[in-house]
UniProtKB/TrEMBL annotation:
GO terms for molecular function: FAD binding; oxidoreductase activity, acting on paired donors, with incorporation or reduction of molecular oxygen, NAD(P)H as one donor, and incorporation of one atom of oxygen. Keywords: FAD, Flavoprotein, Monooxygenase, Oxidoreductase. The keyword Oxidoreductase applies. This is p-hydroxybenzoate 3-monooxygenase. Residues 2-341 form the FAD-binding domain. It comes from the Bacteria. InterPro entries: FAD-bd, FAD/NAD-bd_sf, RIFMO-like. The keyword Flavoprotein applies. The lineage of its organism: Bacteria, Bacillati, Actinomycetota, Actinomycetes, Micromonosporales.
């Protein structure tokens, strides 16, 4: 097989890049080890920054998003028996939209297939070769057949456990990483949301988040110990703990219902530099991971490939390589800003491992400052909805 850009990974980053390249007349092939059903069903992030919404609309992918996405103009912080709304749109002129990552993936898959795009699902034994040459190669097996995909460039969008980052020689990449002493227990419940906007709750027993996916489906999270097992959390215990941590405002209750899915996700931060080596470019979770508190994961991935789409367009249309050479430096400015914001939100809202009373008072002081200072609330809001440029 021959294409211009070979893309490893059919998540939001890989699919969006393929779509953006198609709009610019650049051919690509996407290879994915999972099935189409799996990538379209796996529940991940659900908050789109204003810039991500704009990107999807400009790429012709905004129809279902406009119909089913829920625009939010604020978030609520709960702490110390108080509730404070951060009016994001009032403070910044921008908003977020709640629209599940799996819905973004469905829209992208449908758009690529409708345009005749090549997405090869359920591939095995993916290997990258010749990345330092002018004709890199992606080798894999598809439905029992050995395939060689020759391309001008390879883009790895296959996550932190994929093969792409490992194809870079030792000594080239530098990793910056932090693991947190807690995890998130996330549940998807058939329960009408009791909120109109996301609620972030800081509680002595641990953090909780009340989110929503539709008028009938709620998405909720609890801070737990990363060593805990799902079998230790029957539905009754989950709802009881959510009530303890969220029902701190008089007259308000959590709506309950059947729990459809639950999982425990460890919390960590990761940045790998640079995001490019020779003819290999890396994007999304392959080179950066953030704790989900700041809702930055999918948005960073989309921002990465938006840069790559422009860079490849400049290369193929005019033979200019400046944007490609600057990709890593440009992308990392946004990545590190999002890293700091995600760390800050996480540190402010979670019960810290030390149970240090001093740190607990610092958390409350920070939250009170957000609630009382327009400039501090504006800083939170502009980072949350997404900075237009860095």
């Amino acid at each position: 097989m021959r294409t211009q850009v070979g893309i490893v990974g059919a998540g939001p980053a890989g699919l969006m890049l393929s779509h953006l390249l198609h709009l610019r007349g650049i051919a690509s092939v996407v290879v994915e080890c999972r099935s189409r059903d799996h990538v379209e069903r796996r529940v991940r992030a659900g908050v789109l920054e204003q810039g991500s919404v704009d990107l999807l609309r400009e790429a012709g992918l905004g129809e279902r998003l406009a119909r089913e996405g829920a625009r939010h103009e604020g978030i609520e912080l709960r702490f110390g028996g108080e509730a404070y709304r951060v009016p994001m749109t009032e403070l910044t002129g921008r908003a977020i939209t709640v629209y599940g990552q799996q819905e973004v993936v469905k829209d992208l898959v449908a758009a690529r297939l409708a345009a005749g795009g090549e997405i090869l699902f359920e591939v095995d034994d993916v290997n990258l070769h010749g990345l330092d040459s002018e004709s890199p190669l992606v080798r894999f097996r598809h439905h029992g057949r050995e395939v060689e995909l020759h391309c001008d460039f390879v883009v790895g969008c296959d996550g932190s456990h994929g093969v792409s980052r490992g194809a870079v020689p030792d000594g080239v990449l530098t990793s910056y990483e932090r693991s947190y002493p807690f995890a998130w227990l996330g549940v998807l419940a058939a329960a009408a949301p009791a909120v109109d906007e996301l609620v972030y709750a800081r509680h002595e027993r641990g953090f909780a988040l009340y989110s929503l996916r539709s008028p009938e489906i709620s998405r909720l999270y609890l801070q737990v110990d990363p060593a805990e097992k799902l079998e230790e959390w029957p539905d009754e215990r989950i709802w009881s703990e959510l009530r303890r941590r969220l029902e701190t405002v008089p007259g308000w209750t959590v709506n309950t219902g059947p729990i459809l899915e639950k999982s425990i996700t460890p919390m960590r931060s990761l940045v790998v530099e640079p995001m490019q080596w020779q003819r290999l470019f890396l994007a999304g979770d392959a080179v950066h991971i953030v704790p989900p508190t700041g809702a930055k994961g999918m948005n960073l991935a989309l921002a990465d490939v938006a840069l790559l789409g422009e860079a490849f367009a400049d290369w193929y249309a005019y033979g200019r390589d400046g944007l490609l050479r600057d990709y890593s430096r440009t992308a990392l400015r946004r990545v590190w800003r999002a890293q700091h914001f995600s760390w800050w939100m996480t540190s402010m809202l979670h019960r810290l491992d030390s149970h240090d009373p001093y740190e607990q008072q610092l958390q409350l002081s920070t939250l009170r400052y957000v609630a009382s200072s327009r400039s501090y609330a504006t800083s939170l809001a502009e980072n949350y909805v997404g900075l237009p440029s860095i």
